Amino acid sequence: MANYRVGRVSQEILKEVNDILMNTVRDPRVEGITITDVDLTGDLQQATIFYSTLETDDQTKKETQAGLDKATGLIRKELGSRLTTYHTPELGFKRDESVEYGNRIDQLLNELKNEDN
């Protein structure tokens, strides 16, 4: 039964963090971020939020991570006022590399297809 609650709360966190990033956080380093997934512990105390961006530059990636780390307190405060849980989970942001990995696979497949033609 608890697994259903974890899933519901993680989906709610995903929705609210997207809204907070678009409407509340004014840091230009975090513009254009898409929240892809939320990994929430079973006791709802820690949430790892996975994000992706269209940027591929290493310096921009570091700046984006720094902007998210700086805004974590504000995001958690806003999230606490929007969620109906007793405790607001500790937030951690991690870059989702699966989008870049998928793009690389598509690129390799297209190259193989072009070589055959």
Main attributes of the structure:
alpha+beta; GMP Synthetase, Chain A, domain 3; 3 helices
Polypeptide structure, described:
With 117 residues, the chain is of the alpha+beta class. It has one domain (2-116): K homology (KH) domain (GMP Synthetase, Chain A, domain 3), CATH 3.30.300.20. It is 56% helix and 17% strand. It has three helices and three strands, in the order H-E-E-H-E-H. It is globular, with a radius of gyration of 17 Å.
Q: Mind describing the biggest β-sheet?
A: 3 strands, mixed
Number of domains: 1
Q: In the CATH classification, which architecture applies?
A: 2-Layer Sandwich
Q: Proportion of β residues?
A: 15-25%
Q: Do you know the CATH topology?
A: GMP Synthetase, Chain A, domain 3
CATH class: Alpha Beta
User: Going by CATH, what is the homologous superfamily?
Assistant: K homology (KH) domain
Give the overall shape, derived from the CA principal axes.
globular
Provide a count of the helices: 3
Distance between the termini: 54 Å
Low-confidence segments = none
Helix content class:
55-70%
Cα Rg: 17 Å
| Helical/strand content category | alpha+beta
Give the topology string: H per helix, E per strand.
HEEHEH
